[in-house]
Fold these 4 entries.
Entry 1:
Amino acid sequence: MDDRRFDSLAKSLAQGASRRTVLKGLLGLSGVAAASGGLLTGQARAARRPNTPTPAPIRCPGGQRASGNSCVCVDSNLSTCGPACCNDHVASGTQAYSECCDNACCHGQCYGEELCCAWPNLFCEAQNECCTPDKHQCCGSEGCCDTECCPAANGAALCCEGETPRCCAGDTCIPADGCCSDAECGGCQSCQNHVCVDNSDNCVGCLDCQQGSCTVDDANCDDGDPCTIDTCNAADGSCAHTFDCTLIDDDFCCPGETCNITTGSCEPIVCAHIGEACTDPDDCCSKVCMGGGSGGRCICLPDGSLCESDAQCCEGGPCVRSDPTAQFGNCASVCNPVNAACAINGECCSTICSGAGACICLPDQSLCSSDASCCSGTCHRLDANDEFGQCIP
């Protein structure tokens, strides 16, 4: 292309001719007319254009609409974010919440270098990381926990792990089988130092806590009476004390009566009369059952007979003993006065049967065993527990 043709091309472009028309003129002689015609046509059109062009209307993306010279969200509850609309008017941390993050909506929380921590993940500021749902979320300065997070009472926090993977809120990390409260323990157990232990205070009355259940313990009903059977009621924890005279010797449980071994209760003694059948002395009310067994008969002992008690003697006693500590004595109906003949001390009614066979009393200063044996005064003992004393007027 020579310099003149280049200058012509430049001039035509400067005057507003289209590139296509100008290029046609460059193709040869036959195109000169076309180029000339085109150039004149372009000049005519340029002459008809107004000096100020008409502005094109605003075109808004997605869910936005034009409002004056700007785009706004069609839903007035949403906020524009580049070409998008974000729902930041609801509570954060919910599925519906979104916020603007680098001209795009983050359905969660925007953090770091315009990064989005999408719901249900949780942003953990302490370590500038995003905690995923499979973790136990943000744990204070610990960051995201693989295990349970335990917020302590002093505001600190700890990731529970190893041998203590569980958390008691506001307390500490504990073993997996540990407890935080009584409610986590079964039955009557209580949580003590994060361990479930039996606690009988959680049972009523006589019931005891054993292996987590309130169970009967009859020992809690012991009334100290050997003649009763003590039982604990499983329904309400109350105690029952059932009398049973067969539990111990009937003379203990039934003093003055007899024990019915069938019913376990005490019954009045029905005495056989003299001459009636008996099997043991109790049948004869302290008289003597002579013979015993099926052929026994109740008898009384005449004067002079060997006896153990006054009741065995026919005249009602006394059963006189030469030695007050002796088991046996002799039945004597009447006491002999002083100076009367005697064979044993008992015949003299507490005075002394002398070696000469006469009842005598002891003069003053004599050794004595009772006041009655002294002629006058009393039998004075230096010690009240002494067997013998001295007659003093």
Entry 2:
Amino acid sequence: MTPRVDTLVVGAGISGLAYAHARGPSADLIVLEASERAGGLVRTLRDGDFRFEHGPEALRSENGELSALLRELGIEAREPPPNASKRFVVQRGKLVEVPLAPHRLLTSSLLSLRGKLRLVSEPWRDPKLALDGSVADFVRHRIGSEALDALIDPLVGGIHAGDPERLSMRACFPRLVTLVEQHGSLFKALRATRGSPSPSVMKPRGGNATLIDALAERLRDKLRLATPVTGLEYDGSRWQVRTSNSAYEAARVVLALPSSAAARLLSPVSAPLARAIGSITCESLVSIAHAYARDDVEHALDGFGYLVSSRERLHHLGTLFSSRIDVECCPEDWVLLRTMIGGARHPEVVDWSDEQILDCLAREVAPLLGLRRKPTWTSIQRWRATLPRFELPHVERVATIERSLPPRLTLLGNWLHGIGVNHLVAAASVAARGPRD
């Protein structure tokens, strides 16, 4: 007899786990995961004395669903120490500190006098223009081309691994668009929200996988690992879900999967819906964790890391100072770094050999940080078609997808409304509290 369940969640990444947790321990629910571990990209690895992240380096610190979840689970999350507060960008082959207070940009070498004058003219820009265009359109209109090249282009590369000319402002940075709509300018919004706590980052003690482990433990036997879903059908009243060795019948299905996997499963249910989901493009990246004796690194590493503007013509997008962000991730006389290579600028990098990737570190990263020797230890992770590209039509595309959903089907994932763990936890929590009839 086919087992019946109220809700079947397909995918045990952070979205699927957060949804199942938010439904509560009494929910009639099962989570199916194809791999032998939960967490998706949120994964903390250990190799000898080094502990490093496979996915996001840290979590966003703000009063929201993620912080509430960590408190509920009893997970200690700490902000980086004060000596990791600086952010850098590469300018003409050197690291330059990025002022964290907007007024300090007026004394920074990142912008010329002309660029600074253009920046301070922002309150007089038309608040109705460039809200629904690209990130580049928005930034050029509000603060100028120089600020786009020096500040926003490397930021977009670091967050989205994308091209600001091709990414939707409303999809990538909806909060900034809303602030302009509400206050008329970014500077006026800053004045109006003065005194509000500034979002920072935090990291669970023991790494980000601490969150995954706690959520998985709460689910107990409701979580079924190594159980790939092979087929999905809807007869108008109930869902039929097939796995490699069993089948389930469910009143509701939650697909918490990458866009390509969701499109594949939904193709027999609704071909137009599957095509719309499958049209979302994803960037490929390479992440390299690399370690050095502290004496072999000239730079003080007194910050969070640095990002690279596309005008520098480098293959890597930036480097995080992991051992500053989390002092427990390696012995104190060592330095652990993490460099990202590829993205929209250089999609071919994901197919490079390990030797080519390490050559890139020696050629591009070593001169910037004064790395005197080759890394003593490295770990290379390739992410193929992993980071969704929020292109110009993304907002309308997602709206169309959500209007086209069959009854009792919920979609979750980083390809919908936001790529950060905080966005994913918030979306999952809202979906779990929503109507289920």
Entry 3:
Amino acid sequence: MRRRSRPLRKHQRTAFEYAKTEHPALFMEMRLGKTLVVIRRCATYRPREPHLGLRVLIVAPNSALGSWEDELTTENIDWIRLLGTSKKRFTLLDEGVHEETEKPRYILTNKESHSSVPEMGDVKWDAVVLDESQFIKNPKTATTKFYTREFRDVPHRWVLTGTPNPEGDQEFFTQMLFLHGDFMGFKNYYGWQNALFIPHPAGFGWLPKSLTRKKIQKAVGERALVMRRRDVGVEKHKVEEVRWLNLPAKVRKEYDSIENEFASESTRTKWAGAKFQWLRQLCGGFGVEGDLVHKEKTSALTELITGELAREQVVVWFNYNAELREATKILQKKVKVMSMTGETPPTLREKYRRAFQAGKIRVLCIQQAIAQTGMNLSASDTAIYFSQPASYLAWKQTQDRILDLGQDSSLLLLYLVIRESVDEDIHHALREKGVNSDRTLNKAVQARQEARTRARSG
């Protein structure tokens, strides 16, 4: 059996033992091998309906499903992925769960499938696994309501993620509700919120009462396994370098004009408004009208790919599709390159990912929003940030995409940053003490922008 050639590592054995509990919560950082732990533990379950075999539902972001396919194939376990129209997905689901077999079978689907195939909530699953389970953190969404309402009679419910509470401890509630039907004695999110939090005096959400954080941490600790790479001795060294770039004089004048107007608006408008996006896109080379106005970053990227990194496989991260397409067009003249955006079908994304992992593609250009979670790009140990995410969580997760715990080499992270711009603000803010969430990052970036515009006007 192939399984014998892949013994669980020490930290995976710890997780495997913990997962004897009925409804496990594996809050393990990315690349610690929690997928294999789930598969091995599920193999010990007895099917509710033996003539149909073990039936496990995996719900995950599209970018993570390819890794599940790889692991299950290596473990010699059958799997079916729900793709296509609603009718096609229903047919695949129906055939997959009702065909008689003695073998275990996994049904793989994305988190949005509940709207097209709600019938999956009626199946007598032996286990249901929510991978990157923070997708049910918001109690108001139809997605969260579906997953916390359905599957109540499933013998084994799982949640998996390395970042269960990226925006605060309130995000634990619905994940624990999915597992156990309650959390800290509460079955309703709003009753729990009213008991442990108070409204923010300025109207920005809710603040924890005294001792609330400790109470939540204790409750989570009693029901979940929390594991970080550094805790188990597998943290990798990261080498970070910045390539500082300057805007051409004409573009700089336009940039400063927009930023001066930007600074005079209210805090809420500043962060969410179009002008912030204009400033970011100007740093990437594109003007307010979407036209290409400079090539500072594309030129620097081309020099790196064809010069210092000429023999390296590289992942290049982008925030905007326009800059991604322009960079891809230029690189195609030099190297074997492929790109992924939100418009790239999931099956094609997986095809490109596998080609990259096999060394058939040297440069992969990716819009960061589609590959934050679950996408294994560890064939490379080098990433270039054409534009850094304005999200602390996305920044951390994109770095993990190239992490391979079996490699001895360090990770090389290169940042293309425009001086005296929102580019620089984001770069420094991501590293500031006290920045550990999207909310604290937003505040840090705003403070830096305000300081620069004050200095300019003074």
Entry 4:
Amino acid sequence: MLRTSLERRLGPVDASAIIVSNVIGSGILIVPAIVAGLIPNPLAILAVWLVGGVLAFAGAMAYAELAALRSRAGGEYVYLREAFGPLVGFLSGWTSFIAGFSGAIAAGAVGVSSYLGRFIPFAADTTELVTIGLPFWMLTVTRQDLTALSVIAVLSVIHIIGLGPGRVVQNVLSLLKVLILIMFVLLGLVFGQGAIENFSIAKPVPAANWLVALIPVMFSYSGWNAAAYVAEEVRDPARNLPRALGLGTAIVVVVYLAMNLLYLYAFPVEELGSLQIRVIDAAAERLFGGAVATALAAATVVMVSASISAMVVTGPRVYFAMARDGLFFGAAARVHPRFRTPAVAIIAQAVWSGLLVLSGTFTQLVEFTGFSIVLFAGLAVATLFVLRRRQPFEPRPFRAWGYPVAPGLFALFSMAMVINAIWRTPGPAAAGLVVILAGVPVYILLRYWK
């Protein structure tokens, strides 16, 4: 008999580590310059990052109730399927597979290759080795691509061979990521060539600018819901999932506030808002000089690898749950008889991510479907209201803090962000909607053509 359920072997720290690695990525390295350009007031900048963190925490608490109530693999796919029907759930999982997780993994792997090139030139060599023509794609292989494929393969194999080694790798990478950033902040504030006077600017900020600035901030917090994807593998989920979601999100908020504090110490706010490169690179140059560039590149390899590792864990749990419902190819619902992991789903994601690396299409896919992360997270939080109304007497091991105000604000702001994305960038948003809606015929085929 094929095993189609996963083992509960993760604790709250393990699940929190997945959140930390998922969230802390390129956002905090780039977005602070965008925010500073919108609200050139140091205290207002820190305040908007705090508000974003509070909203993320509100979303995490809503997911904590949902995950404790439905402690199954798949995250929002499970909640959306139950509240709004299988098609909506499928479209969230379809988008995750096509672009959300796979595209982000491909982008991260190429980024790791680029930074490794500082130490191993082979890893960043973009010279074409071979070109493969397919009916709808042109696949180009370079040494950088081979390095990126190796990163994806190694992390996928680690997470296939069991929660034991996978958990150790994920926890170590997450810990290193946090330690690197906190150490960077502490060294910068104590020994860096910054200026405390940078915080004395007190320009008024229009309310409209606050709202606009919250949009990239909330994108930077995306991933706070990562523990929900592995709910089926968390021990005592009613107790540990809320702890994991709360702890993981709180750690991210603290790290983000600390990083912004350091950036503002390094640059006057106007200069910070005009940066055209990664803020962390510019801050390191300003605070310590060019000597830290190599160390920062090595640290970036670790931090991005941690993010890839977290996505290799979480994404396949969605496809596993979909396959168990007959909405993905059936083999993805199998649990490896020895390792007790959704091995086929992990392999499927790795193969698709690899194809995106070779085709170079991951950049466009991630850009087009970026708003879908906010869309489906907002809808998932809204399911809290639906399920409470439909099932008022069902026992709830955990109830979302601040209900109904906190989850309501999160859902409303998420929809505002989606509308803003469609309004401001209609071309990419339309392309993203096409990608999402392309899942409709696939859904019909999977559900009705047996």
